[in-house]
Write a structure and sequence with these properties.
heterodimer, A: about 50% helix, about 0% strand, B: about 0% strand, disordered N terminus
Chain lengths: ~70, ~375
């Protein structure tokens, strides 16, 4: 069997869209305008990174990397 | 069933190709903007970073499994030297940033242990059978390589299954996580990391004939881009570049949606992970960069020109690929990461386990390349 790579990419995109569709159906909806959590606003301002991350409501990690993501 | 490797090209059409490139660029910008609006600016930037990873890896032909294979079989170490260069370029700013913003940023620090070493060793074998590592499988799948596409669901399943048995594996014994900067201070960690990387790169350089020791320009470019993107990822995400967690989460979500109760499993009942099971994938850092990697690789592949058809692979390689991808996913979970999360990010953020991972996975790869050759020869 030969199959064009463009068709393979099509299959992949279908899979990704399928996953995201299920995600949309079953996961909690995203509120892009949600306010930053109070604990984040109450923190002491920190230089460099925190000021950037604060803009995006980033959850500052307190666990180790591998408790969270690899 | 059979596939892979490019053969016949479709006829080129320069005007059409130009139009397509404009469309691809606009599509990327649109996707980033849509995600930024829907899930926040940070997620939009993370998608852009993921796209950058995919475009760099596919566009400049930079990988991990392939260069290891060439080093083992042909003593061609350009690719490994470029990997070490990329890690070194990322390590200096990353270790400094981790020092400056301690508590805000975290490194890829993980313990060395029995299951970690075993996992890295098995990962090394399996990635040579699949001919794609953690990032490589995504890049291959994204660029339309059928083996990559075939391997991806098994890789996802393996990385999910690995999370279910982690406590039993960890019970085999492991040390506390060791960050070189805790041991030696930031300056010491930087000096030791860069010194070891330089020494290793020099050693690999000696493998090459003396008239062929200059690194190709595309590898230098790729190393620079990868390092820059990895540092940006650390800054924006607050954690280093990773791949496997996102795939495991996709598998866990599919299992969860199918009715499987994951609350009984230690990994998924932990606060952060349990929350990620209920929230959208578009809010998960690793998932978003993984999506970007897949799409970026596809865009880079199409950018270069018309995509080609593929030729046959023996059926036993398909079966072996599926088993190897499953093992690769499972093993990467035990090993606290793949070539990205453990090797690249572990070493560049000063974790001892990154070095141990490299040694174990390279030893595994030495077996893996021979195993793959046997599988191919056995099919003839």
């Amino acid at each position: 069997m030969t199959l064009k790579r463009s068709h393979a990419i099509g299959v992949l995109l279908l899979g990704l869209f399928g996953l995201l569709f299920l995600d949309l159906l079953f996961s909690a909806p995203i509120d892009p305008f949600q306010a930053p959590p109070p604990w984040l606003l109450a923190q002491e301002p920190k230089p460099l990174v925190d000021s950037v991350q604060r803009l995006w409501n980033k959850e500052i990690p307190s666990e180790t990397y591998f408790d969270m993501e690899v | 069933m059979s596939s892979t490797t490019a053969t016949t090209a479709e006829p080129a059409n320069p005007a059409g190709q130009r139009r397509l490139r404009i469309l691809l660029s606009l599509g990327m910008v649109l996707l980033i903007l849509l995600l930024a609006i829907y899930a926040g600016i940070r997620q939009g930037i993370l998608l852009a970073i993921g796209l950058g990873f995919g475009i760099t890896l596919e566009g400049l032909g930079f990988g991990f499994a392939g260069p290891w294979r060439r080093a083992i079989l042909e003593r061609n170490t350009h690719g490994i030297q470029a990997q070490l260069l990329a890690i070194g370029l990322a390590a200096l700013p990353s270790l400094l940033l981790l020092d400056i913003a301690a508590g805000e940023l975290i490194g890829a620090t993980a313990p060395v242990g029995v299951s970690m070493i075993l996992g890295a060793f098995v990962f090394g074998i399996a990635m040579q059978v699949v001919l794609g590592c953690g990032s490589g499988t995504l890049v291959n799948a994204g660029s339309g390589n059928l083996m990559g596409l075939w391997a991806l669901p098994f890789f996802i399943a393996g990385s999910f299954l690995g999370t279910l048995h982690l406590p039993e594996w960890h019970a085999l014994g492991q040390l506390e996580p060791i960050a070189l900067s805790d041991w030696l201070g930031t300056s010491g960690a930087i000096l030791l990391t860069l010194g070891l990387l330089a020494g290793l790169a020099w050693w690999f350089r000696q493998w090459m004939p003396s008239n062929d020791r200059t690194l190709p320009r595309k590898f230098l470019l790729a190393a620079g881009f990868l390092a820059g993107l990895a540092v940006l990822n650390l800054l924006v995400a607050g954690q280093p570049w990773g791949v496997v967690y996102g795939l495991g989460l996709w598998g866990a979500k599919l299992a969860h949606w199918s009715g499987m109760d994951l609350a009984n499993f230690a990994f998924w009942s932990g606060a952060g992970n349990a929350e990620r099971l209920t929230q959208s994938l578009l809010l998960d850092i690793t998932s978003v960069t993984d999506f970007g990697l897949l799409l970026g690789a596809g865009i880079a592949a199409r950018w270069k020109g018309p995509l080609t058809t593929q030729v046959s692979l023996p059926t036993r390689l398909w079966i072996a690929g599926a088993i190897a991808a499953l093992l690769m996913g499972y093993a990467s979970r035990l090993a606290y990461g793949c070539n990205v999360g453990a090797f690249f990010s572990g070493i560049s953020t000063g974790s001892l386990h990154g070095w141990v991972w490299f040694a174990a996975a390279f030893a595994g790869s030495m077996i893996g390349v021979r195993l793959r050759n046997q599988l191919i020869e056995g099919s003839r």
